[in-house]
Amino acid sequence: MSVRTQRVAKLMHREIADILAREFPDQSMVTVTGTRVTRDLSIVYVDLSIMHDSAEDRQEAFDTLVSRTAAIRKFLAQRVRHQIRAVPSLRFLLDNSQDEVRKLDTLFAQIKYQDDP
């Protein structure tokens, strides 16, 4: 990854996180966990972590957010218009790493309980 793509990725991360927090407060607790930018700076892949109790609620919140992609891109264009020439397309991805962490914590707790009852 070049220095330019890293800078654009950081800019997108910061601005998208701020847009989600300020412009869409009705949305669930959403955290931008990462951004990746293609070499030609035309697409930004945004990893999102959504806090909900059930996977169905999380998926529903994600689908709602994906349906608002055009509005998010419009807000993004207003914020970065003096920093980059063309605003890249946004591709949102659901980050399920928190679920994996919870599963591993549960497994480790079970192992510890079996070793030391």
Structure characterization notes:
- This protein is of the alpha+beta class and 117 residues long.
- The protein has 4 helices and 3 strands.
- A 3-stranded mixed sheet has the order 1-2-3.
- The mean pLDDT is 88.
Fill in the keyword field for this structure.
117 residues, alpha+beta, GMP Synthetase, Chain A, domain 3, three-stranded mixed β-sheet, 3 strands, 21% strand, elongated
Outline:
The protein has 117 residues and is of the alpha+beta class. It has four helices and three strands, in the order αββααβα.
Chain-wise SSE layout:
Layout (H helix, E strand, L loop, with lengths): L2 H20 L6 E9 L5 E9 L3 H13 L1 H12 L8 E6 L2 H19 L2
Proportion in β-strands: 15-25%
Q: What string, H for helix and E for strand, traces the elements in order?
A: HEEHHEH
* Class from helix and strand fractions: alpha+beta
Strand order, largest beta sheet: 1-2-3
Q: Let me know the largest β-sheet.
A: 3 strands, mixed
- What's the domain count? 1
Tell me the span between the first and last alpha carbons: 49 Å
